[in-house]
Amino acid sequence: MILVDLSAVAARRPDRPLFEGLSLTVASGDRLGVVGRNGGGKSTLLRVLAGIADPEDGVVRRGRGVRTGFLGQRPELPAGTVGEAVGDHWEAAAILDRLGMAPLAGADVATLSGGQAKRVALARVLVSDVDLLVLDEPTNHLDLEAVAWLEDRLARFAGGLVLVTHDRHVLDRVTTRVLELDRGQGFLHDGGYQAYLDARAERADADASVEAVRRNLARVELAWLRRGAPARTRKSKARVATATAIVEGGPPPPDRPGALDLGAARRGVATPRLGDKVVLLHGVGHRYGSDPWLFAGVD
Fold first, then answer.
1. Comparing 93 with 238, which gets the higher pLDDT?
2. Are residue 93 and residue 229 in the same domain, yes or no?
3. pTM of the model
4. Same domain, residue pair 94 and 146
5. pLDDT in tens, 213-230
6. Which domain holds residue 67?
7. pLDDT at position 88
8. In a designed cystine with 80, which of 45, 84, 97, 180 is the match (CB 3.0 to 4.6 A)?
9. Among 167, 198, 229, where does a domain finish?
10. What band does 179 get if pLDDT is binned at 50, 70 and 90?
11. Strand 177-182 versus strand 185-190 pairing type
12. pLDDT in the model for residue 248
């Protein structure tokens, strides 16, 4: 059963695309992990899949009657206690216990920390009867025992699963496909996290081969232009300049604006200074409520 189908969808930021022309189908039994750089569009894509946000271009089709459970990065909880937010049945109590929240079942959700609220929101999603789970960083704020339990539960889930997590062990165990978002493009890999790494390495090798061929062709053209009279014409001089720039230039530009060229030092190229002042503090202090100050007057 097809749960959600994306056709040529796109989302952008003012300075760059997050993804463009992305087509993807999630059906019952699918286990899809989404990976990519921070700020690369993973959370935006999950919101589109869950129906929380619309794409800027493209078409989203959903299966009739499909129920979706969504865990966002900053979930909102209904007013009341933790127990009321999750439910008063035995499964809700069991999941809260597995996630380390059973002692706070009677606590007001307004008093929870960010990590506690995320665990309660995860419990709410897991107890719901849904066909599609869309989870954004569900392992954040979980201890190892809770992560192992979550892996088992997700592995047993019969519906479709779309998952973003920095826990590579969870990706490798739970997912059967990996979607990589890289500089506005989507690359779909069959298999778990290891298969994604293998495919990414192959793509990097292919890119390096294409770059080497391009440079070799530029060297041949540069040598030909410098040998003959055509190099004296204005058009040929421009071709000489272009070929020279290719041969003598550095590697392709960084993946995104502001990214550092990590190979610069190895090539003997000075990297730009990022500034002398990272942060300036004056008279800073902190305490919890009316408790004694942890520190004060920090300059």
1. 93
2. no
3. 0.70
4. yes
5. 667 766 766 666 666 645
6. 2-198
7. 87
8. 84
9. 198
10. very high
11. antiparallel
12. 55
Residues 291, 284: Cα–Cα separation, whole Å: 16
Report the distance separating Cα 118 and Cα 75, nearest Å: 7
Q: How far are the Cα atoms of 39, 99, 290 from residue 93, in angstroms, in the given order?
A: 35, 10, 33
- 154 shares a domain with 243: no
| Cβ proximity of 20 and 185 under 8 Å | yes
Query: Residue 32: pLDDT band by 50, 70, 90 thresholds?
Result: very high
Q: Reply yes or no on whether the pLDDT at 247 is more than 80.
A: no
Any bridge partners for residue 180, and if so which? Answer: 35, 187
Judged against a pLDDT cut of 80, whether residue 256 lies above it is answered with no
Tokens of 108: 């007001």
Q: Sign of dihedral through CA atoms 257, 259, 263, 268?
A: positive
Contact 184, 54 (CB under 8 A): no
Residue 220 domain flag: yes
111 and 11 within one domain: yes
Helix 114-127 and helix 90-98, axial crossing angle in degrees, nearest 10: 140
